[in-house]
Write a structure and sequence with these properties.
The protein is an alpha/beta fold. The protein has three domains: 5-137, NusB-like (N-utilizing Substance Protein B Homolog, Chain A); 169-225, Sun protein, domain 3 (Alpha-Beta Plaits, 2-Layer Sandwich), CATH 3.30.70; 228-429, 3-Layer(aba) Sandwich (Rossmann fold), CATH 3.40.50.150. The protein has helices at 5-21, 25-32, 39-54, 56-66, 76-89, 96-109, 116-129, 142-151, 156-163, 180-189, 228-237, 254-262, 275-288, 334-337, 340-357, 380-389, and strands at residues 169-173, 195-196, 203-206, 223-225, 244-247, 267-272, 295-298, 313-319, 361-371, 393-396, 404-406, 409-412, 422-429. Strands 5, 6, 7, 8, 9, 10, 11, 12 and 13 form a nine-stranded mixed β-sheet that branches. Strands 2-3-1-4 form a four-stranded antiparallel β-sheet. Helix 1 (5-21) runs antiparallel to helix 2 (25-32), helix 1 (5-21) packs across helix 5 and helix 6 (96-109) packs antiparallel against helix 7. The longest helix has 18 residues, at 340-357. The protein is globular and about 75 Å long. The relative contact order is 0.10.
Length: 431
């Protein structure tokens, strides 16, 4: 296969699975990228897929204007390849000759040699005329637009803009291996520009995306990729040294690992209902050199009789399953796959988790409820309802650095401080 065509084929296959078969972008990238040996090719595929999903409304507007009839269902892979081609020209801005030639070759490699001329013609027109603006509302489901307008009327436009923008790369330096100031020097020596961020003791921020293979010491556990808002979980929970801690929905393990990097003496119990995802937690712990005192269990956190040993926890992290509406810029397929009825079932699950885990918390202990949602039904209303039915629970104030006041917690909106949308609420059990 032509070297330039291969990553375009992989990108088209990923996009076809996500757009036309309801698959997860993260899962499809994880399955498709290992076929590419060069980390630069893997980075290119990721960039193409994210960009294509963000400009899907513009690509579809171009197809509607430039071809006489809509593409039939059997040509769904062709649509995916064309969206990948458009994304290379705008917004990625790749050299037009190379992008066109490689994408046309990819059409041939995909068994579509008879359509390679069409691919060439459409991409040349996109190069010459630019893509139509399209309607961004075609990306955001009407039910979600309605909820966001109702929940955040003054910030609605900013939320949409942030969701359609590439996120920076946030790093979490493993303080067991060195300081972030030392790691910043290592990045600079490798020609990678990054910056320190006030208020986040382990964080560095890189504008744009970067393959983890290019990060010095990544394989050795010196650093992880984790958004700044997610890194704030360790500050919000702040368990006492040597405490017994539960991470109830732990996969892929970044928040647990951060806690253990800060205090290796924690007696941490990590749960996840998915065995494959829990294995990822163990792999992350091993890479980072943490977790010697941790125990990992495949379990449904609400079924406490099946896994709890009866010893109370000093601190509980409930990073609850949610709509992921705060991380659309990192998971643009959320806009394709999330349905309004999902919010009702997710809110029910969140309430079940809170009610099931609260009795496991020692008197005087802390539970941190966190989500990457920006919907009030999953966040402040969820916590306010829990406080209303739980007499021994009290909210503790979090600093302004955690975002806007939102009931008993704090809500950060997407893009604020360069971070993801995230909700934190710190709850104390009365002694």
């Amino acid at each position: 296969m032509n070297a330039g065509a291969q990553p375009r084929v992989v990108a088209a296959n990923v996009l076809d699975a996500v757009l036309h078969h309801g698959r997860s972008l993260k899962a499809e990238l994880a399955a498709g990228l290992p076929a590419l040996r060069d980390p630069r090719d893997r980075a290119l595929v990721e960039a193409i897929c994210f960009a294509a999903l963000r400009i899907r409304h513009r690509g579809d507007a171009a197809l509607a204007a430039w071809i006489p009839r809509p593409l039939p269902r059997r040509d769904a892979p062709l649509r995916a390849l064309l969206l990948a081609g458009f994304a290379q020209l705008d917004p990625l801005g790749l050299p037009a000759h190379a992008a066109l030639a490689a994408t046309v070759d990819a059409a041939r490699e995909m068994g579509r040699a008879h359509q390679s001329g069409l691919v060439n013609a459409l991409l040349r027109r996109a190069q010459r005329d630019g893509l139509p603006e399209g309607d961004w509302r075609d990306l955001w489901p009407s039910w979600l637009r309605g909820r966001l307008k109702a929940d955040w009327p003054d910030a609605f436009e900013d939320i949409i803009t942030a969701g359609n923008t590439q996120a920076p790369t946030w790093l979490r330096v493993n303080r067991l291996r060195g300081t972030r100031e030392d790691y910043l020097q290592r990045l600079q020596a490798a020609g990678i520009e990054a910056q320190l961020v006030d208020g986040l003791d382990d964080a560095l921020r890189i504008d744009g995306s970067l393959p983890v293979a290019l990060l010095p010491g990544f394989a050795d556990g010196d650093v992880s990729v984790q958004d700044g808002a997610a890194q704030q979980v360790a500050d919000a929970l702040a368990p006492p040294r040597g405490a017994r801690v539960l991470d109830a929905c732990a996969a892929p393990g970044g928040k647990s690992a951060h806690l253990l990097e800060r205090d290796p003496t924690l007696r941490l119990v990590a749960l996840d209902i998915d065995a494959a995802r829990l294995r990822k937690v163990g792999e992350n712990f091993a890479r980072l050199g943490v977790g010697a005192s941790a125990s990992l269990h495949v379990a449904d956190a609400t079924d406490t009789a099946a896994w709890w040993d009866g010893e109370p926890f000093d601190a509980i992290l409930l990073d609850a399953p949610c709509s992921a509406t705060g991380i659309v810029r990192r998971q643009p397929d959320v806009l394709l796959h999330r349905r309004e009825q999902d919010i009702v079932s997710l809110a029910r699950l969140q309430a079940s988790l809170l009610d099931a885990l609260w009795p496991l918390l020692a008197p005087g202990g802390t539970l941190l409820y966190a989500t990457c949602s920006i919907l009030r039904d999953e966040n402040e209303r969820q916590v306010d309802a829990f406080l209303g039915r739980t007499p021994d629970a009290a909210a503790e104030a979090l600093a302004e650095t955690f975002g806007h006041p939102a009931g008993a917690g704090r809500q950060r909106l997407p893009g604020e401080g360069g971070m993801d949308g995230f909700f934190h609420a710190r709850l104390r059990k009365r002694a």
